[in-house]
Amino acid sequence: MTMNRRFFLRSGGVALASVGLVGMTPSFLQRAVMAQTRERVAAGGAGRRKTLIAIFQRGAVDGLNMVVPHGERKYYEYRPSIAIAQPGKGTNGEAAADLDGFFGLHPVLAAGFKPIWDAKRLAIVHAAGSPANTRSHFDAQDYMEAGTPGIKSTPDGWLNRLLQTQTGKEASPFRAVSMTQNMPRTMQGRAPALAISNLSDFTIRAGQNSRAVQGGFEDIYEQAASDALSGTGKETFEAIDYLKRVNPSQYKPENGAQYPQGRFGQSLLQIAQLIKAGVGLEIAFTDSGGWDTHVNQGNSRGQLALRLAEFGAGITALYTDLGPQRMDDVVILTMSEFGRTARENGNRGTDHGHANAMFVIGGQTRGGKVYGDWPGLDAGNLYEGRDLALTTDFRDVFGEVTQKHLAGGANLSKIFPGYATSAAKFRGVLG
Asked: Residue 78: what are its φ and ψ, rounded to 5°?
């Protein structure tokens, strides 16, 4: 039998990265997507639906050069080689784009993000992150994705627990989608979710060995209810059929949006496609790597600038492609496991730090403002004498986005167990 099948099973959820079959479309798939089933799947996308797009900057982005505290004298003392010039200083394209007289954007973010800021659709939470003191990428990412800093035994991710608290609504197979090769920690759990590396591969292809292939997959589909694939597998196959009709290969961005080349830009383009297709997407996730800048980080140019250019271009394209009306129903939330040291190191880079900056874009964002209590960079205010101190727990940002945008009645104590988050701790980023 000629077939290529890749499944990822996570606590009962099925992530189908791709199914490649050599054969005609199996008859059991035709039965699985009879009119009643198609109506149910399509109903998941009917009407306006709120969507959260979570973007993880893996490797610990330097938040102090991404959102520059140009009004902070110590910033320039600590970073003689890699600091971003104050607004109005330096040659063209080297200075921070001023936001409020104290903070500014890295210059490569200015063209895309500054207009969104000026339109008050982009907000920043600075000095935010995890209270855990780990400097391990693996542990810090795990804590942030699980939503339980300092606890490694949490069985599921915070986004999956969010889905679990909203089980009463009619759900589409595309309710939760990660545009990644594997299911991320944050979406693992009891609630079904899909990990899709490329929408164009999420299909059934025809060829000469259809009979043998059909038997193999029909056996899977017809297994007893106790089988791990019996429930979510059925929805997955329905999702395949529905997505085929969306025709991913024919998608054209709108409003002049231009996504950057590469996996990150492609993942954001395909998230936009799923939103526009009305397939019932509520939570989307993707990530971007290469932020671990220990050596030759650069300032307005260099290693970090290249990563930020792709990051900013991708988000700007997504925002432009969806347009103002759709963005009313979409919030883009960015995060990174921790920040980087206030001082540059001997290799003109930065080492693993503590607090960082997060972007919140779209929805009912109260933009045009940097939120959070700025702790300052004087030596006595630094965390462990080296890092930007934490003043906003990431769970309060996640919790605010959850309650104000996606799930107003959500029980935050179930989403963030062991943490007393509440509206009193929200920063007011969303209206």
From this structure: -75, -20
